[in-house]
Design goal:
Layout lengths: L2 E11 L12 E12 L2 E15 L2 E11 L5 E11 L6 E14 L5 E14 L2 E12 L12 E9 L1
Parallel strand pairs: 1-9
Antiparallel strand pairs: 1-2, 2-3, 3-4, 4-5, 5-6, 6-7, 7-8, 8-9
Length: 158
């Protein structure tokens, strides 16, 4: 199965100066998007929260609900992302993640993975684009372990 994911986030944050991504900053995100898995097309809605434990290092958690395809899925994720302070506005990032999938009428599935990309930050606007890939711990993976997914995020700080 091939997974193609285009996701748009609306990130609302209380970062005082979002270009600095300073320790103690927090953000809340709303996720809206879609995915295609084989013949199934999903709509995705979700939320996320992040806390900058150190400058440029975010620790976060999120929840997604995948609907309009079969089977219905829910996904809980914890992750950490480090933004490399390359310049004030451009920040490459990389992160590690762990996800737990709740699958309708089937056994749950666990996965771990990574994400890499680049963020453009010019207060109050935040934009990032990258890829993420997960490796499933079960032989019953819903998605192929070989497919990376694209991720896009648009956000605003206040």
């Amino acid at each position: 199965m091939r997974l193609i994911l285009f996701t748009t986030f609306l990130l609302l944050s209380n970062l005082v100066h979002s270009a600095s991504l300073t320790a103690g900053s927090k953000s809340v995100g709303i996720k809206l998007g879609g995915a295609s898995i084989g013949p199934e097309n999903y709509s995705i809605a979700g939320v996320s929260i992040n806390y900058f434990a150190l400058d440029n290092l975010a620790i976060g958690a999120g929840y997604e609900y995948w609907f309009s395809g079969k089977p219905t899925l829910s996904k809980a994720t914890v992750d950490s992302t480090y933004y490399i302070p390359a310049s004030e506005q451009l920040k490459p990032y990389f992160g590690l993640l762990y996800s737990h999938y709740f699958v309708e009428d089937n056994a749950d599935i666990d996965a771990y993975g990574y994400r890499i990309g680049i963020a453009y930050i010019k207060s109050p606007v935040f934009f990032s684009a990258g890829i993420r890939q997960e490796k499933y711990t079960s032989d019953r993976a819903i998605f192929s372990n070989d497919d990376a997914t694209a991720e896009f995020m648009i956000g605003f700080s206040f």
